[in-house]
Amino acid sequence: MIEISHITRKFEHFTAVDDLSFSVAEGEVLGFLGPNGAGKSTTMKIITGFLAPSSGRVSIDGHDIAENPMSAKALIGYLPEGAPSYPDMSVISFLEFIADIRGLSGAQKQQRIEKVINDVELSSVCHQTIETLSKGFKRRVGLAQAILHDPKVLILDEPTDGLDPNQKHQVRNLIRNLAKDKIVIVSTHILEEVSAVCTRAIIINKGRIVADAAPAELEAAAPAEFIIESQASPGKLEAFFRSVTTAGAQ
Amino acid sequence: MGKTGIIFKRELYAYFSTPLAYVFIVIFLVMNGIFTFDLGGFFIRGQADLQPFFSFHPWLYLFMIPALAMGLWADERKSGTIELLMTLPIRLRDAVLGKFLAAWVLSGIALLLTFPIWMTVNYLGSPDNGVILAAYIGSWLMAGGFLAIGSCMSALTRNAVIAFILTVAICFVFVSSGSPIVLNAFSGWAPQILLDAIATLSFLTHFDAINKGVLDIRDLLFFAAVITAWLLASAIVIEIKKAN
C-alpha cells in the first residue's frame, strides 16, 4: 500500500504539485496521466524519495520515505524519466552493480540477472557498453534495473517512450505479468496504453487530480462533443503494424 | 562489501573503462619528469633527495586533480543518473565517499607509478627513505584535499568545464594563501589574526613541512580536516541542488 497525503511541491516560480492525495493498493496498476508539465514526474520523484515535498507525506508499505528512506527505497523499483544509466558500463556490469547495491549476492544474484535479461530481451546486447545501444535498448536496460530485485512497488516514468510498437507491446505484457501482487504506477501520455495495462487511471493537471477512476469509466464519461470519429483507429493500426513486423507473426 | 565499497568499485571501474585513467596517469608521469629533471635540476643539485620532485606537486595537482574531479557529480546531474543513484537504497555519504575514494585511489596509483624516480635516487646515492615516504604520504593527502574541493565544485554545476575552472580557482587560493598574492588582498584592512588564520590554510605551508620529513600530526590533521569539510560541503550542495 502506498499512501500519498497532501503533498505539495513548490519551485521558485510555480507549484508543480498542489496538495495531492491518493493511495494505491496491491494488485493495482495505476496509470498516471496528464499533459506535459502537469506534475507527473515531480510526483514520481517525490514518491521515490528523490525530491522532498514542500509539505505532505509519502508512505511506502508503512515506511515513511522521509523518515525511513532506506527501507522505503529498498521496496521500490524505479525507472526515472529518460531511463538514465551509466553510458560507459556494459549492460551486464551495470546490472551487477545494481544487484550489489540491492543486496543480491551469489546464486540469487546470477539467477535474477539472467531472469531480467530474459524478460526484457537484452541477451543479444549483454556485453555491449550502454552508450552504443539504441534508444529502445537503453529503455529496456532501465526497466531491467528497476525490476531486478523483484520490487513490491514499481514506479515507471514513461516506460514505453522511444520504443517501437512491438517493444511497446512487449513492455505492456511485462507490466501486466509483473502486476499481480505488486503496486505499479506508470506515467504516460499515450492514452491507449492506459486502457491496455492499467486497472485505474489518475489524470492530473496543474498539479491537481482532475479524474480518478477505472479507464473504462473514464471512457464512458467522455462528453459527446469531444469525441471525434477518426478515420483510422490507432488500436487497429497498431495491431496491423505488429502483424507485419513481428517475426513469425500470428 | 558495504555500499560505499560498491560505489567505489563502480567509479574506479569507470575511470579505467574510459581513457581518462590512462591519460591522467601518463600525463602525470610525463609532467613529473619534466618538472623534476628540467625545472627542478635533479642532477645538477647533486643531492640524494626528492625535493625537486615533490616541490612541484602542488602546482601539478592544481591542474591535474580538478580534471579528475570535475565529472564526479556534474556528469551524474547532466546524464540524469543522479536520480537513479539517489533513489537506490544508499545513503548520500556512501555516494560522496565512494566517489571521492575512487578518485583518490586513482591519484594514489599515479603517484605510486613514479617509483622509478625513487629507484633512481637510491641508485645514485643514499637518500633518507623515511623523508621520501613522508613526502609521498603528504603528497597523497594534499591530492585528497584538492579532490574534496573538486567534489564540492562538481556538485555545484552540471557543467564539468565550469566545475574544472571553479576547482582550479579555489585550489589556487588554498595553495597560495600563505603567499603575498593572497595576503596582500587582506593586509591593511583585516586584523592580523585573520591574516594569520588565512596563512595557516595554505596547502603549501603544510605540505612543505611534511616534504622536509617532519610528519607532524597537525599537518596530517590539517589535510584530514580539509577533506572532511569539503566532502561535507559536497553532501550539502548535492542535497540542495539535486532538484534543479
Unreliable runs of chain B:
none
The total count of strands of chain A amounts to 10
**Overall pLDDT of chain A, averaged?**
88
Unreliable spans of chain A: none
Outline of chain B: globular
The chain pair with the largest interface is:
A-B, 31 and 22 residues
SSE string of chain B: HHHHHHHHHHHHHHH
CATH superfamily of chain A: P-loop containing nucleotide triphosphate hydrolases
Share in helix of chain A = 25-40%
Architecture overview:
The complex is a heterodimer of chains A (250) and B (244). Chain A is an alpha/beta fold. Chain A has one domain: P-loop containing nucleotide triphosphate hydrolases (Rossmann fold, 3-Layer(aba) Sandwich), CATH 3.40.50.300. Chain A has 9 helices and 10 strands. Chain B has 244 residues and is an all-alpha fold. Helix content of chain B is 81%, strand content 0%. Chain B has helices at residues 3-17, 20-39, 42-45, 51-54, 57-69, 71-79, 81-86, 92-112, 115-124, 129-156, 160-176, 180-186, 192-200, 203-211, 217-241. Chain B is globular and about 60 Å long. At the A-B interface, helix 2 and helix 3 of A face helix 1 and helix 7 of B.
